[in-house]
Design a protein that fits this description.
The complex is a heterodimer of chains A (322) and B (557). With 322 residues, chain A is an all-alpha fold. In chain A, 75% of the residues lie in helices and 2% in strands. Chain A has a two-stranded antiparallel ribbon with strand order 1-2. In chain A, helix 5 packs antiparallel against helix 10, helix 7 crosses helix 8 and helix 10 packs antiparallel against helix 13. The longest helix of chain A has 36 residues. Chain A is globular and about 85 Å long. Chain B is an alpha/beta fold and 557 residues long. Chain B contains 21 helices and 20 strands. The radius of gyration of chain B is 26 Å and the shape is globular. The model of chain B has no long low-confidence stretch (mean pLDDT 89). Classes of the chains: A mainly alpha (322), B alpha/beta (557). The interface between A and B is medium-sized, with 28 and 38 residues.
Amino acid sequence: MYFLLARLFQATVVMLCVALVGFLVFQFVGDPVLSLVGQETTVEDREALRESLGLNDPILVQYARYVMNAVQGDFGISYSFNRDVSEMIADRLPATVELVLLSGVFSLLLAIPAGIYTGIRRKGGIAQTIMTISIIGVSIPSFLLGILLILVFSVWLNWLPSFGRGDLATVFGLRSSLFTWNGLSHALMPAAVLCLFQLGVILRLIRAEMLEVLRTDYIRFAWARGLPGKRVYFGHALKNTLVPVVTAVGLQLSSLFAFSIITELVFQWPGMGSLLLHAIGQSDIPLLAAYLIFVGLVFTISNLIVDGVYVLIDPRIRHGAL
Amino acid sequence: MIDILCETKDLKITFPHRLGDFTAVHSLDLQVRRGEIVGLIGESGAGKSTVGNAIMGLLSHPGQVSGGRIELGGENLVDLSDAAMARLRGRRIGMIFQDPMTSLNPLMTVGGQLTESIALLQDVGVAQARQMAIERLDGVGIPDPARRMDQYPHEFSGGMRQRVVIALAMAGDPDLLIADEPTTALDVSVQKQVLDLIKSICVERSLGVILVTHDMGVIAETADRVYVMRHGALVETGPTAQVIQTPSQRYTKELIAAIPSIERREERFRNPAKKTGEIDQWLLQGHKDEGSGDYVTASALTKDFATKKKSFWGKAGTFRAVDIPGLNIKRGEVLGLVGESGSGKSTLGRMMTGLIPPSSGEVTYGDHGPLTDVRSRTARKALRRDVQVVFQDPYSSLNSRMRVDQILAEPIRFHGLADHHDIPRLVGALLERVGLAAEAGRKFPHQFSGGQRQRICIARALSVRPRFLLCDEPTSALDVSIQADMLALLMELRRSLGLTMLFVSHDLAVVRQMSDRVAVMKQGEIVECREAEALYDAPENSYTRMLLDTAPRATRH
């Protein structure tokens, strides 16, 4: 419990630092008053505006106000869209969540058994084939794979739509495109592109950890105790490979949330990545700052979850023995 | 011969390799009867563990039984399929590994692992298996077994873990138990308890036990018969007392002679022949005649380590690893420091050499003054040149990316002890001085055996012309025969060069051979510190007496 409390405290500090960076972006990129008023405004009026906006307050007070607003979900108004930044993120987020979930679930479902298999039968033909595919998955650039998929499945075969997000449906109050066939068909290719890279990384990690764990004394002792292979591999070895794997999966999924930019661009997917691209192109400072904080939040939360999972997996952390 | 439980006939084990097969075991004949403990002894590379693994059907890849038979109750195990062999493991043959710290799954409770084994091997339900598990834990001497069932391995001490491992190995009530170095990782007092447990189980259940070990003392205390192995072949076999007292083979004689005695100090260590290499002149250079007096004195020395915080707002506690009123080492003296693991002996050794700072108290050097005053860069450099360390593990204490001559030349150059063009000659002479060829300098550390590496470590320590040497368990990672050579070398160097030494070890016999005076540590305190011979012959402290009594002796029989 102490471990988790300490991590929660650390996470808060990290988020305050991220917010500071977001806040400083405003401080360094021009005077907001100048961009709000015209040439003819008098110095007194400008000063009054400055006062009413709180820009004359000490910097710490301004920072505190920024943090308070951010906590309540208020990141200001986007320059280029003239809309609430938090509203825009709320619009785009579900689309990205869909992709992350779909690709994350598939990559885990494939990577865990494949990683265990290749860890146990290192030399077999199937294992070699899996390893070759995984290295292709890791090394092929996502834009290339995306374009190839579009060429094969949209242009030649005409099976799947090549761009955009499909129809939405509401199930249990959740509005998502994954609940319709049309939506699913749109999400399939971008999710596959994201999945393949994840798959390669996680599979190779599980395999490497498996090889490591299978050499340990407690696995040899498990064989000597007469336990059947299934118990040894799944009951004893797998759990011991999980700590580094959970770490990697946490980081991978968070970076999907934040940086699936290229894939979203290739498939014209209206998610967070294309929003970021737009914000950069338009120098939309409030949007950029909010995005920065959002990315920080995703990584912090996923690391918190990872820490929580550690505690569940490894009793030595629970007892403070490590 | 109805009572023979397990037998190997002309057993041959090979590891195929593209440069030619390596035969790990040649034509071994071994017999184990019910209710008998058979010792299998040999130095590293003798193939003794390979035999145990082969009987278990757990040879590491790519090893294979390439000839002969392994019979268990008349059945040839070599012919069995993998599946049939797997059914024997745990049910007919049990195995215990060396390190109880690593042979239990760290993520599963002790009770979970034991219940799992019992449910499978005894074919009972989980609830009944759990009940049996509690009884079994009780049976191997674990206090409060019902509560300890739900604890994880890291909550057990080394000795308790080895008891759990024994309970696990016995879960399927096997007929044969293979114990591979079962007590090597344990303290002597715990070692005795674990060996006693194995002995009593052997008698109670008329179990056949194969005890694989490198330690003649363990064999002498435990085994009924012994097989001596060397380079994969059987050297000698017979009843333990007979083999130890009247060995018929030369190798066995040498092996037994190499074991340092705990009963008396041997002449070869007390008065080693003085040797002089051409390098001695250089090594002694700059050493003025210091006379007698203390080289190093520690006063009111303590070391505290922070322990984990108990709660979020709580303060971190401290654990006092060392707390001694004072300790001194005279010039040219060897002070032995013995104690069990966790007694603080290594920590004290490191404080005496300035490697770690004390929490309170002071270490004062005859030539340099108090450690807290050695502040300036030059003073610190001078102190570090005079004080050197030989560590326990010669595998990890040499930089594997550096050639040996670079390893030895670096300190000479750093301290500016010789002209640039003299260094290669000095390095060669240093290597010869510690018993290696001068050409050894061109190789990398991994190309040497453990003993040779430890010689390189000693040469490295000598390369800065030290006055004071800390030897922290310098021979615990080495075979007995090599250990004797290493101790002789250290004693000879000490005599020839007039070194002052602090010799830290858990091995009471080794410390007796090396030391003029001995300090015994227990839980951070020195319980007894006297002239070595007097301390060993008539220990005054009860803890010292207990240590001396529990130490296994090869020569007691």
